[in-house]
Write a structure and sequence with these properties.
By secondary structure, this protein is an alpha+beta fold. The protein has helices spanning 9-23, 36-50, 95-108, 135-141, 146-149, 160-166, 197-200, 239-256, 292-313, 332-346, 359-364, 390-414, and strands at 56-59, 65-69, 76-81, 116-121, 184-192, 205-211, 213-222, 226-227, 261-263, 267-270, 276-277, 280-289, 316-325, 328-329, 351-354, 369-374. Strands 1, 2, 3, 4, 5, 6, 14, 15 and 16 form a nine-stranded mixed beta sheet that branches.
């Protein structure tokens, strides 16, 4: 499909500012899902979509908003995003995806196309109020089951089913949203990187290879607490020292590998007083990699390392799984199309994985999927300091347009 008209990338940036002024403030974005501010943002988007001739707008059973521009065939290319934010969030996380998709839909909806084009604004990607991320996309994909989230409550004690009902969503019907995906053949998502890689490379845009797999464990060391003054150094069984040595080893192992992550997030000790060394210590280990074999090797190495250190320190160690998700690679052909679109507007692309999860991870289980990243200044996100140069935002909107055109042609060739 040839571009008959180009996107107005400047308009998209101005609309991002308009949305930020409507649902933001000195402390950042306030579009937490299932709240009045989020509903206000949704009404703003609906108004923008209503101005596009021939576009049909609906909300599905999981609260996801869909805008459909019918084509000559029922096969549909999806452009995805989410308007919801974390509390005091940035002006770009999620909103860029949706507003850029809005601009692409404006241009392509009036044009004759061999396939249907659809914009989706997923509900509750962030999980900021009830703790369950990827709610709307997970419900549509069948990965979220109502019974798994039925008892969730927010900080004020409001139950998830009650909050959903206030916004017209019945928890037991959310999986019916899957009907929206019946004719989908590809999913495209633009997002800020939320990390420092592209900025360090002095590149505005990159093609995303997939989302990291995650292994998350609690590692618990048990020794013997005793008095800090009366116990000689050579007979101590200090659980904290074993944990500290292990944390450094986990960090060093990740640093030796190519493009993986290893993080100790929390550390709890007992008794935690100045006059004793600690007989018990628990810490978290979060490991991430794009390759399942590498991730498995990282976990195996960490276990063996912790056991060796525990033996040297005279303590025992136990591991308890907190959470895991497999690596989710994106489609190789669509990655190639994304690189072409990026090169067309920016001259050079870079392939990189995504550390954070996105709605694209749920879609990639069901259909060919790809993401485009635009640089984040200082790698900051999920706070009011989140920012990207406006010229790069404009490039990203143009790249999404070019990717959509290429994907429509790709889908038509596949029949």
């Amino acid at each position: 499909m040839e571009a008959m008209e180009s996107v107005d990338a400047r308009r998209a940036v101005e609309e991002l500012k308009e949305l930020a002024a409507l649902t933001g403030g000195p402390d950042g974005a306030r579009r937490v899902c299932w709240t009045d501010e989020w509903a206000k943002a949704r009404a703003w988007l609906r108004e923008k979509l209503s101005e596009i001739d021939g576009v049909e707008v609906e909300t599905d059973e999981a609260g996801n908003l869909w805008a459909t521009a019918p084509g000559e065939g029922e096969a549909a290319v999806l452009l995805g995003g989410h308007l919801d934010s974390v509390p005091n969030g940035g002006w770009l996380d999620g909103a860029l995806n949706t507003v850029a998709a809005l601009e692409v839909l404006r241009v392509l909806a009036p044009q004759r196309r061999p396939v249907t084009l659809r914009l989706v604004d997923w509900a509750d990607e962030e999980g900021a109020r009830f703790g369950r991320s990827l709610f709307g996309s997970g419900a549509a994909a069948g990965a979220l089951k109502p019974d798994d989230v039925r008892n969730l409550k927010d900080a004020q004690g409001v139950a998830l089913p009650d909050a959903l009902r206030e916004h017209g969503v019945e928890l037991d019907r959310v999986n019916e949203a899957g009907r929206q995906l019946e004719n989908a053949v590809a999913y495209l998502e633009l997002h800020i990187e939320q990390g420092p890689v592209l900025e360090r490379m002095d590149l505005p845009l990159g093609a995303v290879l997939g989302t990291f797999g995650v292994e998350r464990h609690a590692v618990r060391f048990t020794g013997q607490q005793a008095h800090s003054g009366s116990t000689p150094m050579d007979v101590r069984r200090d659980a904290f020292i074993a944990a500290a040595r292990s944390a450094v080893a986990f960090r060093d192992d990740a640093a030796r590998r190519d493009d993986v992550r290893g993080t100790t997030g929390f550390v709890n000790v007992s008794p935690g007083i100045v006059t004793a060394f600690n007989g018990w210590c628990e810490m978290s280990l979060d490991q991430r990699a794009l390759d399942a074999g590498v991730l498995a090797d990282m976990l195996r190495t960490a276990r063996e390392t912790s056991e060796g250190i525990a033996g040297e320190e005279g303590v025992s160690v136990e591991w308890a799984k907190l959470w895991e998700i497999e690596p989710i690679p994106f489609d190789e052909e669509l990655i190639g199309l994304a690189e072409e679109a990026i090169a067309e507007v920016a001259g050079r692309s870079h392939r990189l994985p995504s550390g954070p999860l996105h709605d694209a991870a749920e879609m990639a289980r069901l259909m060919p999927t790809v993401m485009v990243f635009v640089k984040s200044l200082r790698g900051l996100s999920h706070n009011k300091e989140e920012d990207t140069p406006e010229e790069d935002l404009e490039l990203s909107v143009r790249a999404l347009h070019g990717l959509a055109l290429r994907t429509i042609d790709w889908a038509a060739r596949r029949g």
